[in-house]
Amino acid sequence: MTEVSSLTGRLLVATPALADPNFDRAVVLLLDHDEEGSLGVVLNRPTPVGVGDILESWAALAGEPGVVFQGGPVSLDSALGVAVVPGESIEGDRVPNSGPPSTGEGAATRSRARVRRGDPIGWRRVHGAIGLVDLEAPPELLASAVGSLRIFAGYAGWGPGQLEEELVEGAWYVVESEPGDVSSPDPERLWRSVLRRQRSELAMVATYPDDASLN
């Protein structure tokens, strides 16, 4: 089998040509990517549901807007917590943790993660300062360490080779993530802001109109 270069921790930014309504102007944080497939969460799909409405104990740690985000079209009845721990290094080591996501509040992905000495209890590093939160753990264990928390309902998933095919077809731009992407207070503008910061022709794509017929 051809080895797949991991894109874990990077962003998939939907190109204007991507026709799937589930991912129109989506910005996806990849939590896992290897030869077994890919898994991520959409960072810019806030819902009207408040975090306190479904996970009251975690509401105080959720960043603004304090709502649940739709992480993708798969397993909408599961919840994932993604949090940034300030001061963590940008390069995060990862080791395999096999098995698909489980459903329920404590949903855990097969994301590669490594628990380092000093990492907060209840937080598993995915990439740099970004990690997954164990939603079944007491929130007070993370209260003093977490800089921002997002709760996602569902996730985006790709089978073996599926994401690679979509990349070849030009459905996604792949760019580096920043910790602030997880906690953007204005998620509706995240697609444009991520593209605008690129030092390449991608910065021009940020000006692409919402209605292509106006271009």
Automatic annotation (TrEMBL):
Region feature (Disordered): 89-114
Q: Which domain of life is it from?
A: Bacteria
Known InterPro entries for this protein? AlgH-like (IPR003774)
Coiled coil where?
none
A single GO CC term for this protein reads: cytosol
Pfam families cross-referenced by the UniProt entry: DUF179
Q: Which residues cross the membrane?
A: none
Any signal peptide, and if so, which residues? none
Record family assignment: Belongs to the UPF0301 (AlgH) family.
This protein is called: UPF0301 protein HUT08_12130
